[in-house]
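Before going further, it is useful to explain how the protein records used in this thesis are read. An example of such a record is reproduced below.

***
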Amino acid sequence: MCRPFSLLMSAAIGVLLLSSPALAQVGCLSQAETVDAVRDGRVLAYDEAVPRRLRNAGEFLGVRLCADNGILVYVVSTLTDSGRVTHTAVDAKSGRIVGKR
């Protein structure tokens, strides 16, 4: 996927900020900071970092880029078919899943 499209995709996804208390934590980047981090190469764009199987793991609720123990992670929130909301942390540089709750 071309880099400009990835930047636009990240910016569009950044608009979908959750008001979930689980994500309302200190350390999450603003939409502008997220776009800057992608543009500057500090993190991969969302569509490059988050595994496809996770993007299709239920109804997408939103995503935030947050600092967790010194690393930047995408926190992806989804609603499962059973009605449970899950929050999955994906390392924003490697795309490796590093946590789930």
About this structure: Residues 1-26 have pLDDT under 50 and may be disordered.
